[in-house]
Amino acid sequence: MDRLEAMAILIATAEAGGFSAASRNLGIPLPTVSRKVGELENHLKARLFIRSTRKLVLTEAGASYLAACKRILEFVNEAEAEAAGEYNVPRGELTLSAPIVFGRLHVVPVVSDFLSEFLEINVRMMLSDRNVNLPEGHVDMAVRVGELPDSALVTTRVGSVRRVVCGSPAYFAKNGTPKTPDELTKHRCVTFSAMAVGGSWIFNPPGRKARLVTPHCRLHINTAEAAIDAAIRGVGITNVLSYQIEAAVAEKKLKIVLQDFEPPPIPVNLLHAHQGPLPVKMRRFLEYAAPRIRQSVVTTQKKLGYGVDKQQT
What we know:
- About 40% of the residues lie in helices and about 20% in strands.
- It is an alpha/beta fold.
- The protein is built from 9 helices and 14 strands.
- The protein has 3 domains: about 5-85, Winged helix-like DNA-binding domain superfamily/Winged helix DNA-binding domain (Arc Repressor Mutant, subunit A); about 90-160 and about 265-310, Periplasmic binding protein-like II (D-Maltodextrin-Binding Protein, domain 2), CATH 3.40.190.10; about 165-260, Periplasmic binding protein-like II (D-Maltodextrin-Binding Protein, domain 2, 3-Layer(aba) Sandwich).
- Helix 1 crosses helix 2 (about 20-25) and helix 1 (about 5-15) crosses helix 4 (about 60-85).
């Protein structure tokens, strides 16, 4: 059995979601695809796929082995490229994941410039506010906003954002501006579900313990964009992440309040699951993207009137 060939077929099968699709993509007979995957399973004495009439689903062992196969083939390709004198020409497909709004504002512009410079690399971006498991989702690198649990993921800090309270100038002109979090109970508020803790907003001024305040919410909503739109229309005060309102603040559609009571900055990290040397395409992207995303985040924070987080400089 040619194990490298079998590994490549396994990867193609997993990404295509079935033997038939992999056969078409690879241009090899369907029986060959099925046989090669079967040979791998026999060699490993482990089941790699759960087979059904609709699609193939990786087993836990299959997902782990698939990630290892990708790393092995990437290292082999790099070694061959180096031997051929092409080590400095990274190529291949790079899969990235990022939160929707943060990705659109801070990552897509960097990726666009990266593609212009590295012509042999293609990028597949997945913008989602759901944290994707990197190996299971076949994701090379991801941007995460928020504290990270202890894990085997390798992280590079690229900035920080703030949890902010804001409303429209017209709303504040009519209803007054809250001076303390407790005054939110006297105002109409719009709660974005992902930012609330059981319907409460968190405040953590310097030198004081964190505390939760339950505002008087007229509207509960499940996306930041919709909460921001409602606040701009004067429905009430909302609580979102700073980068999400950059444009609205610049256009004077929203005004940030209660800044003295905000929690500490929220970290933004660029991360990956590789423990050894990175494939060239990933190393080049990390070197290129990390400082540019960091600068983009810093610029946004300064526009909103915030200083630079010491940990991101």
